Amino acid sequence: MCMKNFYITLFLLLLGRNVLYSQESRSYYMSLKTNALYDLLAIPNLGAEFYLGSNFSIAGNWHYAWWKNDKKHNYWRTYGGDLSARYWMGKKAHEKPLTGHHIGLYGQMITYDFGLGGKGVLADRWSWATGLEYGYSLPVAKRLNLDFTIGLGYHWGEFKEYLPIDGHYVWQATKNRNYWGPTKAEISLVWLIGRGNYNQRKGGNK
Fold first, then answer.
1. Tens digits of residue pLDDT in 45-103
2. Phi, psi of 72 (to 5 degrees)
3. Does residue 25 contact residue 37 with C-beta atoms inside 8 Å?
4. How far apart are CA 43 and CA 49, in angstroms?
5. What is the pTM of this model?
């Protein structure tokens, strides 16, 4: 009888282990997001992030705005994006992926044409940036986080200055930008997607 109970107990333990393993293997974590700072500047944008395991993730963002008013010489045109590799750390990150503190490396590429009736600046070739970032992703609802991120690095690229004169855009100067400092800022609304990728309430999920 004791041997029979032993085999029954062993079978139940193995079955329970396999069920847990199966549930964990089906779990996946990703997110879609939009940067509210870009939204406030009338620059539509969309980002995505994928959890790779072992507290690592990769994230990408893209923006595109092509607003113009030729009569008033107003131009608000830009497109580009960035990629980053992140490491999540701290208690919150160990409790659930894509939550809490994160650090990372990022690279950016961007073109732009900005002019508000007077002197305009045009970068019709890619400008680049790379650097280090730090952020924190704060749960605000079951499937929503707010992510605050700042990046410091190096930005370089060529741009042209021009003036609208008699219906034409007259080139004034070509310059190179070489800049060290903040090159990335995010206050992003993050939509959590995936099996098991949700925030639990205090005291357990209800």
1. 999 999 998 999 999 999 999 998 877 778 899 999 999 999 999 999 998 999 999 99
2. -100, 0
3. no
4. 20
5. 0.79
Residue with tokens 């707010």: 146
Give start and end residues of each alpha helix (H) in 33-106: 36-40, 91-95
Which residue in this structure is represented by tokens 């200055």? 161
- Cβ contacts of 95 within 8 Å, gap of 6 or more: none
Asked whether the beta carbons of 55 and 64 are under 8 A apart, the reply is: no
CA 15/CA 186 separation, integer angstroms: 45
| 139: pLDDT strictly greater than 90 | yes
Residue whose pair of structure tokens reads 């499937």 in the numeric block: 143
Encode burial over 92-117: b for 16+ CB neighbours within 10 A, e otherwise. bbeebbbbbebebebebebbbbebee
